[in-house]
Amino acid sequence: MMTSFPIADDITINLRGQSGCEVVGRPGSGKSMLASYIMLIAMKLGAFPVFADTKRSDFFQLGKMLSRSELDEKSVPRSAATPAQVAGLLRKLNSLMNQRYEKHNAWGKDWVDFRLRPVVLILDEYSATIAEADKSTVNEIDNYMKQLVFKSRQMGGIFTVLCSQRLNSNVLDVNVSAEFATRIAMENLDSVSLRLAFPQCDLDQIPVVPNIPGHGLIYSDSFSNNLPQQFVAPNLSEVDVPMVARLLDERNHSRKFAHEDYWPF
Question: Is there a domain that residue 265 lies in?
Fold first, then answer.
């Protein structure tokens, strides 16, 4: 089972052994387009996509469209539009992850060895979700997020793409942010967001990037040093993302993954 794909020159994302990718950027900087690219390539590898989009925007609509697929017998919603629904979706993913550990865990094995289907979670505008939620829902979302990023890499098979306009420690715990093997800042960001995205390096050493959509900084745990490097995200301007997602989703119904009685979707 292939699990890796390029995101920039000499930089690869691997669904195996990683909990996810963090993308930070202002509106119009290209972060949603980059998240779409990661989602489509993950789906090409067989991943099942789910969406948390409290703006009720593109990813929410895409989740609704995929949920209506004629091949989905149960037609369970794949997109969450309110903070409470986001908490419910994260709860469902944590339950899937824990069931996988209980049913399949073995010394030195992971979800790929058991041919479990990977899941890609697109968590769009995380800061807006936290701002909209009441205190108890914020705590619930925070708790589930910590479990996902700390536990999913071995047996969970759940890859989170977390997108946000800006980040600080009140929005996302520093330890959670640091668990993402790939961290990306689109265009020029404020120092607080940069410090959370790249906590391992001095801000004065971070390269300056042009404020052009699609341009940004990327850091991977595979780098030999602590500095992010400049990159240009793949251009999907001529790609019909919903159509390609639908075609990939329908194709993946025939892929041979292990049967899971507890599969929640």
Answer: no
Q: pLDDT of the chain along its 265 residues, tens only?
A: 899 999 988 889 999 999 999 999 999 999 999 999 999 999 999 999 999 999 999 999 999 999 875 455 556 789 999 999 999 999 999 999 999 999 997 899 999 999 999 999 999 999 999 999 999 999 999 999 999 999 999 999 999 999 999 888 889 988 898 899 999 999 988 888 898 889 888 888 888 899 999 999 999 988 888 899 999 999 999 999 999 999 999 999 888 899 999 999 8
141/85 Cα distance (integer angstroms): 10
d(CA 232, CA 187): 10
Cβ burial of 89 (10 Å; 0-12, 13-18, 19+) is buried
Instruction: Tell which residue, 96, 67, 71, has the closest CA to residue 79.
Output: 67
Inside any domain, residue 264: no
* Residue 150 CB partners (closer than 8 Å, separation 6+): 19, 176, 179
Number of domains in the chain: 1
243, part of any domain: yes
Residue 138 lies in domain: 4-252
Reference 34, options 246, 209, 182, 176; nearest CA is: 182
Where residue 172 sits, what CATH number does that domain have?
A: 3.40.50.300
- Verdict on whether the full-model pTM lies above 0.90: yes
